[in-house]
Amino acid sequence: MVIITLQRDKCIGCNYCVEIAPGQFQMSKKDGKSVLLKSVNAKGFFTLKSSDHTIAGNCKLAVKACPVNIISIKET
Question: Rounded to an integer, what distance in angstroms lies between the CA atom of residue 36 and that of residue 17?
Fold first, then answer.
């Protein structure tokens, strides 16, 4: 299981995550912040749980590229 979490409220809209992992992230046209696709919101933390481990590679790169450290990934 791959668990990706985005703390969207703190997003600065740099677009790095979208450039690195466009299959998991996109920018909102409403507020210019990142959106974690197919995620569930729980008090500002958007979480995606997937059994597809192929998404982990690009998401790990997005975690490293994020200048405000609001993306996390965990593999189980």
Answer: 9
CATH code, domain with 9: 3.30.70.20
Instruction: Give the H or E element holding residue 42.
Output: strand 40-42
Coil, helix or strand at residue 17: helix
Task: Using a cut of 0.90, tell me whether the model's pTM lies above it.
Answer: yes
Q: Which two tokens stand for residue 6?
A: 């985005």
Q: How far is CA 39 from the centre of its chain?
A: 9
Closest CA to 72 of 22, 5, 7, 1: 5
Query: What is the amino acid identity at position 66?
Result: C
Which regions of the chain are under pLDDT 50?
none
Phi, psi of 50 (to 5 degrees): -140, 145
Give how many domains the chain has, as a whole number. 1
